[in-house]
């Protein structure tokens, strides 16, 4: 059974995991609500569970065919929930535990990108216990402007573009509020892009335009002025290069299911991979649903495609 045959799927008993205790809890609840509504509209029996309120180890999974993970941030995207579901023998959407853990760490994924010749900005891994002078020296060596980011966090939380040495201490404080590890990353000036894949199907590329300094949390979820473009004023070979770079990044990490690659195109028209999101948002502002709609995939079918592998395995099981 292929992705194009989702209309022929029987109905399933599904659980949507949303909420959790990460800094992205609010967005996760919104994603979960949208997903549950969409899957219900496709005829499935859907129950939403918040792992911060219900112990998944004690939950009765006998009446669950598969889980849609709509947990963003820590616990959802870092491989923890995937490892838990693996132990419980419950099929779930998205990448496995090891790939999720790899993608969620910016430093670990960058190392894999470098090994696989995928362009990514240079970086230095830092820790909150590091000597301030050591971090300042790294920043001077890297040069300004630079970007300070938590090593493991999503939705651009704790991210700051630092223009001068005087701005560095505040940026570090903000970064270490979200994670004990962080990275200093070379700031690439250029246009922002995102590429989504659904079970290896490449969705239409999106160029993001925001009036803010970069595509930060506010631009992602609250700014109605943020623009998402599908028609580009760039040569075809440049668009192909951006797409190829995004696909290569996913292959480097071995992702599956629905993923989103965030990139920057510099002034020399060279694409650079910033990160891969293994559980991208499913809100009204989210990028994957926009790209899917452009490709003619409605939201309900998109949600089913996220579960297609475990659903088809269940559908193909012989009935007793």
From TrEMBL:
Positions annotated to bind Mg(2+) 2: 275, 277
Gene3D superfamilies assigned to the protein according to its UniProt record, in alphabetical order: 3.40.50.20, ATP-grasp fold, A domain, ATP-grasp fold, B domain
Keyword Cytoplasm: yes
MF GO annotations: ATP binding; D-alanine-D-alanine ligase activity; metal ion binding
A cellular-component GO term for this protein: cytoplasm
EC number: 6.3.2.4
Known catalytic reactions: 2 D-alanine + ATP = D-alanyl-D-alanine + ADP + phosphate + H(+)
Pathway(s) of this molecule: Cell wall biogenesis; peptidoglycan biosynthesis
Cofactor: Mg(2+); Mn(2+)
Annotated InterPro entries: ATP-grasp (IPR011761), ATP_grasp_subdomain_1 (IPR013815), D-Ala_lig_Van_CS (IPR000291), D_ala_D_ala (IPR005905), Dala_Dala_lig_C (IPR011095), Dala_Dala_lig_N (IPR011127), PreATP-grasp_dom_sf (IPR016185)
Residues covered by the ATP-grasp domain: 110-308
Stated family: Belongs to the D-alanine--D-alanine ligase family.
Protein purpose: Cell wall formation.
Name of the featured protein: D-alanine--D-alanine ligase
Organism, as annotated: Gimesia aquarii
Gene: ddl
């Amino acid at each position: 059974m292929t992705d194009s045959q989702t209309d022929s799927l029987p109905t399933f008993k599904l659980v949507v995991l949303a909420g959790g205790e990460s800094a992205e809890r609010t967005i996760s609840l919104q994603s979960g609500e949208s997903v549950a509504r969409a899957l219900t509209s496709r005829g499935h029996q859907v129950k939403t569970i918040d792992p911060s309120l219900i112990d998944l180890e004690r939950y009765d999974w006998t009446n669950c065919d598969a889980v849609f993970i709509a947990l963003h941030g820590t616990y959802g995207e870092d491989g923890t929930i995937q490892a838990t579901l693996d132990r419980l023998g419950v099929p779930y959407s998205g990448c496995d535990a090891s790939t999720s853990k790899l993608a969620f760490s910016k430093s670990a994924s960058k190392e894999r990108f470098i090994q696989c010749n995928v362009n990514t900005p240079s970086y230095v891994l830092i820790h909150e216990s590091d000597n301030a002078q050591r971090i300042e020296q790294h920043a001077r060596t890297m040069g300004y402007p630079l970007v300070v980011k938590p090593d493991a966090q999503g939705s651009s939380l704790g991210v700051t573009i630092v223009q001068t040495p005087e701005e560095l201490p505040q940026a570090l404080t903000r970064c270490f509020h979200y994670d004990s590890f962080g990275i200093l990353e070379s700031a690439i000036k250029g246009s922002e892009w995102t590429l989504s894949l659904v079970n290896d199907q490449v969705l239409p590329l999106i160029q993001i335009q925001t009036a803010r300094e970069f595509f930060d949390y506010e631009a992602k979820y609250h700014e109605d002025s943020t623009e998402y473009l599908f028609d580009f004023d760039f040569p075809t070979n440049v668009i192909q290069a951006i797409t190829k770079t995004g696909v290569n990044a996913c292959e480097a990490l071995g992702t599956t299911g629905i993923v989103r690659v965030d990139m920057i195109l510099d002034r020399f028209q060279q694409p650079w991979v910033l990160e891969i999101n293994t559980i991208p948002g499913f809100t009204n502002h989210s990028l994957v649903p926009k790209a899917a709609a452009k490709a003619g995939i409605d939201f309900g079918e998109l949600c089913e495609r996220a579960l297609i592998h475990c659903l088809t395995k269940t559908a193909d099981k012989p009935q007793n």
